[in-house]
Specification:
This protein is α/β, with parallel strands linked by helices and 742 residues long. Helix content is 30%, strand content 16%. Strands 5-4-17-16-15-6 form a six-stranded mixed sheet, with helices on one face. The protein has a six-stranded mixed sheet with strand order 23-25-24-27-22-26. Strands 10-9-8-12-13 form a five-stranded parallel sheet, with helices on both faces. A hairpin with a 6-residue loop joins strand 18 and strand 19. Helix 3 packs across helix 22 and helix 10 packs across helix 14. The chain is globular. The C terminus is likely disordered. Bound molecules: ligand MGD (2 copies), iron/sulfur cluster and molybdenum atom.
Length: 742
């Protein structure tokens, strides 16, 4: 018997429909059983009628109540009493906390101006309201620095948009119809598990699945074929595939003629991208590249699930732009089950969010924009660092001179994010957070790494406890979240915390007096685009989720209609030329292939651990046990060359920092690359650090995106590093002066 039927027949149970808030493409619809007498949630499960969720949640969220009722939940506002970063707090009342924070912010703004306040948030919750609605209104009235939310997908998004026009593509259920599926830079069974149902349907009908990844992930193991590839080299593979496809006349000349722009330029460009040339860069043997290209062009419908792994590199934007050309070249878009999906977010691009964010409250002020990937630089006392933290996504965008970089950041307000664990160049971030003159407010459910540095730590509600609307990025069903239980302890929704802060600051726009339900209703009722027809407040309340009003099956580009300037799939992009890029697909090498000889050191990638969601769930004991310990997966050849044994404590070092991990020797990672699953809380690791010690703030080629997986490191037994450090008379913060053998 399903949980729904079990509880539905129990008169003493109330069932509430909601949606998982996490940063995950699946946006599962969930149902919660609540005991009305105690107000406690008893159980939750995946909505049986939701076409993507299909009744099942992932292993993490299936245990969401363990997180909701975790003894570590913050239940009262806290005020710092110990030294900065010590995590020592005393409880205070909401009135005290709000009053004191507002007084301090007023003082900072009066002395240093509103741009000295920096909001820092990401997708701890993806619900539109708690993600950044009342908070954005608050910072708009203030005129605070603007935060560019670049930490995840921006390089790939920009690249995709240049080719396709918007992050729009296949609907997930279409993958059930594919004959060949390339899973490219995605770990579907970990990060997008509900897509697998459709992929399995395709396989039952004879479809084949190929995974392109430097790691033999659980997805690669489950697939028909794993193509190991050097990190950051995917653009070269795609260019060589096009070389073969065009060279052997396997492209769809009719589709190309009608619906694409710049075929001749593309053909000329790929002419010298032979599989042999790409093999030297990617590590994929030339015959395998030829086979892959031929299979892709001749197995219609052919689908690509491209995701974020391959774009967390210096050349990630161009790589995605290049891969995104493939479906048009072979006419895959004509068929259900053909095409590519990076993200479905662009299908929602006509959502009118004016009522939500209220950018009108800024008036004609234009605060500086700070790239969130450069938080370490932004929190620096050196104006040259602050200048570098300014958002400059394209080659044509220039950075200000240090004297024009604006004020030091004097106040940091963090919500829905844990930058002390997830942001690159961790030691720079921690150094900034440690500043005595920086006033830091953190809103969270738990005392995270970031929370340890707060002056005030404010308890926020979870999705069990507040209203929201969720716009997914992996399918097309908009969903309403209704609160199932009352807030745990004294916690409050982000929306309410910013409402109270606004009142204390004297911000009196009526937007700060709207209730959560009113904000969401206004959002739903203000939509005018036909894609939102039928998405009413009533329908959302009754059913929980409603599909966007687009045709079924959804074949957006079967007859062209690309949302590019030309209306075609742009092999040649005028917009790229204007933005300072090569207008035709080309190869942007990863940072690790530039400069020093490739044989020096190893490349480190740190994609998500299966049981965590970024750093969320990393404090829940069940999931910590499953992930064992912060690991470094290393190929036997690389381990042997360094005298590293399985289970040994190793140091991973580069010029940015170092971290101690436990070696796991495995052929599940290619030689020359190491794989450190993330993101552990730094304070749960033996040395109080995590893998972001060695990641860089450097922007990818497009969108000022992150480059987490484009990192050169040196790895050695931990004991050896200590020995070297002692000999040099230094601490363990050893920089690049490491022995040649590592
Ligand atoms: N080395 C390395 N670093 C990475 C990555 C990687 O693969 N490797 N991945 C990167 C990626 S893709 C991303 S998206 C970022 C993610 O980085 P973050 O967006 O910071 O994600 P989380 O680490 O999950 O932290 C989210 C925090 O928000 C809190 N939260 C959740 N809901 C609410 C709410 O309603 N209110 C408030 N106030 N707080 C809430 C959670 O408790 C949690 O502490 O990390 C990036 N960092
Ligand atoms: N369980 C779980 N699910 C998650 C998350 C989580 O932390 N845990 N995080 C969520 C978030 S915020 C995001 S952004 C998504 C991310 O989900 P995905 O897009 O799947 O991204 P990653 O897991 O970062 O990387 C996917 C794969 O890319 C590989 N990879 C790394 N570099 C390269 C490369 O240069 N080329 C190729 N071809 N492959 C490469 C990695 O080894 C990894 O297996 O997942 C979401 N879902
Ligand atoms: S994290 Fe992803 S897979 Fe898990 S319940 Fe949430 S939306 Fe579904
Ligand atoms: Mo992400």
């Amino acid at each position: 018997m399903s949980k729904l039927s079990q509880y539905r027949s129990d008169p003493n149970v109330r069932i509430v429909t909601g949606v998982c808030p996490h940063d995950c493409p699946d946006s599962c619809s969930w149902q919660v059983a609540v005991d009305p007498a105690s107000g406690r949630a008893l159980d939750l499960w995946g909505h049986p009628d939701h076409p993507m969720t299909q009744g099942a949640l992932c292993t993490k969220v299936d245990r969401y109540l363990e997180r909701t009722y975790h003894p570590g939940r913050l239940t009262t506002p806290l005020k710092r009493v110990g030294p900065k970063g010590s995590g020592q707090f005393i409880p205070v009342t909401w009135d005290e906390a709000i009053g004191e924070i507002a007084a301090r912010l007023k003082q900072i703004i009066a002395t240093h101006g509103p741009e000295s306040v920096l909001p820092y948030s990401y997708a701890g919750t993806m619900g539109l309201l708690q993600y950044n609605a009342v908070s954005q209104r608050f910072f708009n009235v203030m005129g605070a620095s603007n935060l560019e939310r670049t930490i995840c997908s921006e390089a790939g998004f920009e690249g995709f948009r240049y080719t396709i026009g918007a992050t729009e593509g296949m609907e997930p259920d279409a993958y059930a119809k594919s004959k060949l599926i390339l899973i490219w830079g995605s770990n579907t069974l970990t990060s997008n598990i509900h897509l697998w149902n459709f992929i399995q349907e395709a396989r039952k009908a004879g479809g084949k699945v190929i995974v392109i990844d430097p790691a033999r992930t659980r997805t690669a193991r489950a697939a028909d074929e794993w193509i190991p590839i050097h990190p950051g080299s995917d653009g070269a593979l795609a260019l060589a595939m096009m070389h073969v496809i065009i060279g052997e006349g396997l492209h769809d000349a009719d589709y190309v003629a009608r619906y694409t722009l710049g075929f001749e330029a593309l053909a000329a460009r790929v002419a010298d991208w032979t599989p042999e040339r790409a093999a030297a860069i990617t590590g994929v043997p030339a015959p395998r590249i030829r086979d892959l290209a031929r299979a892709y062009a001749t197995s219609q419908p052919a689908a690509i699930r491209i995701n974020y792994g391959l774009q967390r590199h210096a050349g990630g934007g161009m790589a995605v732009r290049t891969v995104a050309c493939l479906p048009a070249l072979i006419g895959a878009w004509r068929h259900e089950g053909g095409g590519i999906q990076l993200s479905a977010s662009g299908v929602f691009r006509h959502l009118d969010t004016r009522s939500l964010y209220r950018h009108d409250l800024l008036g004609d002020r234009k605060p500086r924009s700070i790239n969130m990937n450069r938080l370490g630089d932004a929190l620096s006392l050196d104006p040259a660092d602050i200048a570098r933290a300014h958002y400059h996504p394209r080659p044509v965008d220039t950075l200000p001179m240090p004297e024009a970089a604006g004020p030091l950041v004097k106040a940091l307000i963090v919500y829905n994010s844990n930058p002390a664990a997830v942001a690159p160049n961790q030691s720079a971030v921690h150094r900034g957070l440690q500043r005595e003159d920086l006033f830091t407010v953190v809103l969270d459910h738990f005392q995270t790494d970031t929370a340890d540095y707060a002056d005030y730590l404010l308890p926020a509600t979870t999705q069990m406890e507040h209203w929201d609307i969720l716009k997914p990025y992996g399918h097309l069903h908009l969903a309403l979240n209704q609160p199932a239980i009352a807030p745990v302890g004294e916690s409050l929704p982000n929306s309410e915390i910013f409402r109270r802060l606004a009142a204390a600051m004297g911000y009196d726009d009526p937007g700060f007096r709207q209730s959560d339900e009113e904000i969401l209703r206004e959002l739903v009722e203000s939509q005018r685009h036909p894609r939102f027809e039928g998405i009413t407040w009533q329908a959302l309340c009754e059913r929980g989720f409603v599909r966007l009003n687009v045709p079924t099956p959804y074949l957006p580009f079967a007859q062209g209609n690309f949302p590019t300037p030309s209306g075609k799939c742009e092999f040649y992009s005028e917009r790229m030329a204007a933005d300072g890029y090569d207008p035709v697909p080309t190869y942007h090498p990863p940072a690790w292939q530039q400069g020093a000889a490739p044989e020096a050191g190893l490349i480190c990638i740190s994609p998500p651990a299966h049981s965590f969601l970024n750093s969320t769930f990393a404090n829940v004991e069940r999931f910590q046990r499953r992930e064992q310990t912060p690991l470094l997966k290393i190929h036997p050849d690389d381990a042997a060359a360094r005298n590293i044994h399985d289970g040994m404590s190793v140091q991973v070092v580069n010029d940015l920092g170092s971290v101690t991990l436990i070696a796991q020797i495995t052929t599940d990672i290619i030689p020359g690359t190491v794989h450190a699953p993330g993101v552990w809380w730094a304070k749960h690791s033996g040395d109080g650090r995590n893998i972001n010690q060695i990641t860089s703030q450097a922007e990818a080629d497009m969108g000022a995106g992150a480059s987490f997986y484009d990192t050169r490191v040196w790895v050695m037994p931990a004991a050896l590093l200590h020995e070297v450090a002692e000999r040099k008379g230094e601490g363990s913060d050893l920089s690049l002066t490491v022995p040649a053998a590592v």
